[in-house]
Design brief:
The complex is a heterodimer of chains A (332) and B (334).
Chain A: E1 2-15, E2 18-31, E3 35-39, H1 46-53, E4 61-69, E5 72-73, H2 79-88, E6 90-93, H3 97-100, H4 107-117, H5 123-136, H6 153-165, E7 171-175, H7 183-200, E8 203-208, H8 211-217, E9 220-225, E10 228-234, H9 235-240, H10 245-253, E11 304-305, E12 311-312, H11 319-322
Parallel strand pairs in A: 3-8, 3-9, 6-7, 7-8
Antiparallel strand pairs in A: 1-2, 1-4, 4-5, 9-10, 10-12, 11-12
Helix pairs in contact in A: 4-5, 4-6, 5-6, 6-7
Chain B: E1 17-30, E2 33-46, E3 50-54, H1 61-68, E4 76-81, E5 84-85, H2 90-99, E6 100-103, H3 107-110, H4 117-127, H5 133-143, H6 162-174, E7 180-184, H7 192-209, E8 212-217, H8 220-226, E9 229-234, E10 237-243, H9 244-249, H10 254-261, H11 293-296, H12 299-302, H13 306-311, E11 324-325, H14 328-333
Parallel strand pairs in B: 3-8, 3-9, 6-7, 7-8
Antiparallel strand pairs in B: 1-2, 1-4, 4-5, 9-10, 10-11
The chains are: A alpha/beta (332), B alpha/beta (334).
């Protein structure tokens, strides 16, 4: 059954100049024990969406729609209930581990904090649980006495993951957990995340702009553009055979080493992401789209079926259009 | 102390060497010890050639790049440009910087937020007293893909997208009509869709202007996308180098093999444990031996080189363009 269900979720920031629609009607489902990747570039709304899941957005953000965690609407929760849900049922791992940790507190105390706050351990018994958590993320127990600056970037990210695991949540939300890390350290952290998912049956929502990393860890993938999901489906299929031209551009941005097609031929996408206060009419991607048709500036795109368990918001998969049109996407 | 030598013809290519590191060492004091950030590097960049310098943080790649730019002075060894050893007087360095320009990562950090695009790009030409400032700025902007350039003159960095800001940084470097660009992680802070555009720009500058480039990165996909040659750096040394196709599809050094194996599409992973070791305590023998998967798996012992891996240091790889690896095992099994 679904652990998390997003039903027409929208987030609008109110600023002096007016309203900024950051997330515009996102509906997604996450089954228990599975991993969902959310891809997109800065300004696509992916991080705003992640923060909305636990109501971590600033006051000027208005959230609409329904966010059901285990059947319970997060948006309707009272403050006390929300506090209990954070950490204990769902926790979040932020990008840039150096800012997520308190620089003047020993990491053992930081990991113990959610345990103490939620009454899952007493101060005298917390130390054993902290040692256990450190071991789970591949750090020796004596590291509990270290301060964040004594750790490398990869080790700090492991501490963040230990904190997220502390209260045994069913869902972890990871926002760019490996972005600032070196390739080898990134591989270590991704391996750890995959092991934890397999061993503890935790569900994961992982946010990144790197489609290849998401496809590696996640079962399903949702690609966001200008606040909307423009494609979703099984991750390998979305990565290897994207149906939306924007997904195709993201997939091509990180070339496969050894693939002759990408040798001395970097693939990019012209233009820039749209200003959310001045979105293009019709399909918001059309000004940058290499395969746009005359009707795209006026067309109301929606997530049409694009194969088994797949959907894409592109005219090229629109039902009445699909059969004859060859939808090979070449992005130059 | 100008010593003029004939530029060395790089073996196997028709490209004469333009910029070269010769037996370069750069050391820093670090908590009472000496960090050997660059510990013996020979590297040549040919005219019109794009070389990718890859490695993890702390391997010395940024220090090597800064030394090639004249921003750090070598402890020993030399930097040669056009066959002439770099001098460190302020006038000599000023002249050198017209030829060899730096492109930084994070355009938000390298552009002054209170300066217009025009002022940012005009700064170099003014320092060097170039005539026809406005034409110089306009032509640099349009070569960096900001067209029509006049439209960007009075814009401020915060009014531009990330990709446009990186183009302004590149235009600033191009304004002096350099021969070499040294780019440190030029696309690391950019969005995925913009990344390819900036890399395509670097390729086009090479094709149209004959620019050489050293691109410092931890991203092997970037090397595959734009570089002719790749040099893999580990703990202050280049451990493998050669043509991109050869090194990245048939790597011979276990470290290069491990780096490639952790790319998402790769079938079999070798995840090295730990972080790169400390440049203040470079291990004896092969500097990679403590993390080497070939030594750990016993294959080095089968080849009868395990003793040498632990005790015998490897020679510095020479500045040639053919494929080579600093590895006892690779030498034994070839």
């Amino acid at each position: 059954m679904a652990l998390l269900e997003l039903d027409d979720v929208s987030v609008t920031y109110r600023i002096a100049a007016g309203e900024v629609p950051a997330v515009r009607g996102v509906s997604l489902t996450l089954d228990a024990g599975t991993a969902l990747g959310v891809a997109g570039e800065s300004g696509s709304g992916k991080s705003t969406l992640a923060m909305a899941l636990l109501r971590l957005l600033p006051r000027d953000a208005r959230v609409g729609g329904r966010i059901l965690l285990d059947g319970e609407d997060v948006l309707a929760m009272k403050w006390g209930r929300l506090r209990a849900v954070r950490w204990a049922e769902a926790s979040i791992v932020f990008q840039g581990a150096q800012h997520g940790l308190n620089p003047v507190q020993r990491i053992g105390d930081q990991i113990a904090e959610p345990l103490l706050v939620h009454g899952l351990a007493r101060p005298d018994s917390a130390r054993g649980r902290v040692a256990e958590l450190l071991e789970q993320v591949g750090l020796p127990a004596w590291r509990a006495r270290s301060y964040p600056h004594e750790l490398s970037g990869g080790q700090r990210q492991r501490v963040m993951i230990a904190m997220a695991l502390a209260c045994s949540p069913r869902l972890i939300i990871a926002d760019e957990p490996t972005t600032a890390l070196d390739v080898m350290v990134q591989a270590q952290v991704l391996t750890l995340i995959k092991e934890l998912l397999a061993e503890h049956g935790i569900s994961l929502i992982m946010i990144s702009h790197d489609l290849s990393v998401l496809a590696d860890v996640c079962d399903r993938l949702a690609v966001m553009y200008a606040g909307r999901v423009v494609e979703h489906g099984p991750s390998r299929e979305v990565f290897h055979d994207p149906k939306h031209p924007y997904s195709a551009a993201l997939a091509a941005a990180f070339p496969t080493v050894g693939d002759p097609v990408s040798r001395l031929a970097p693939k990019g996408l012209g233009g820039d992401p749209p200003d959310p206060m001045d979105l293009p009419p019709g399909c918001s991607f059309h000004p940058r789209c290499p395969v746009a048709l005359d009707e795209c500036p006026t067309l109301d795109v929606e997530l049409w079926p694009a194969g088994p368990e797949r959907r894409a918001a592109c005219v090229h998969v629109r039902p009445e259009k699909a059969e004859p049109a060859e939808t090979t996407l070449e992005v130059s | 102390m100008t010593e003029t030598q004939a530029p060395v013809e790089a073996v196997g290519t028709a490209r004469p060497t333009l910029l070269e590191a010769r037996d370069l060492h750069v050391e820093f004091p670090s908590r009472g010890r000496r960090a050997r950030a660059v510990d013996g590097v020979d590297l040549a960049i040919g005219e019109g050639e794009i070389v990718a310098l890859v490695g993890e943080s702390g391997c010395g790649k940024t220090t090597l790049a800064r030394t090639l730019l004249g921003l750090e002075r070598p402890s020993s060894g030399s930097v040669l440009y056009g066959g002439t050893a770099l001098e460190y007087g302020s006038r000599a360095l000023k002249a050198y910087r017209r030829e060899v320009q730096l492109v930084l990562q994070d355009p938000m950090g390298s552009l002054n937020p209170r300066q217009t695009v025009y002022e940012a790009v005009a700064e170099g030409p003014r320092i060097h007293g170039l005539p026809g400032e406005q034409e110089v700025v306009a032509s640099a902007l349009s070569r960096a893909g900001l067209r029509p350039p006049e439209r960007f003159f009075l814009r401020y960095p915060h009014e531009l997208s990330g990709g446009q800001r990186q183009r302004v940084v590149i235009a600033g470097a191009l304004a002096l009509e350099p021969k070499v660009l040294i780019a440190d992680e030029p696309v690391a802070s950019l969005d995925a869709s913009v990344r390819g555009e900036i890399l395509a720009l670097l390729l086009r500058l090479r094709d149209e202007l004959g620019l050489s480039a050293l691109v410092v990165t931890h991203d092997l996909g970037l090397a595959w996308n734009i570089a002719d040659r790749v040099a893999v750096m580990y703990l202050g040394r280049i451990v493998e180098s050669g043509p991109v196709e050869q090194v990245l599809t048939a790597p011979r050094h276990p470290y290069t093999q491990a780096l490639l194996s952790v790319l998402p599409e790769s079938p079999e992973r070798v995840v090295l444990t730990g972080e790169p070791p400390d440049p203040t305590r470079i291990p004896g023998g092969c500097r990679f031996h403590a993390r080497c998967q070939v030594l750990a798996s016993g294959r080095a012992a089968e080849a009868g080189v395990d003793g040498r891996c632990r005790t015998e240091p490897l020679a510095v790889l020479p500045a040639v363009s053919t494929a080579q690896a600093a590895c006892h095992y690779a030498a034994a099994v070839d």
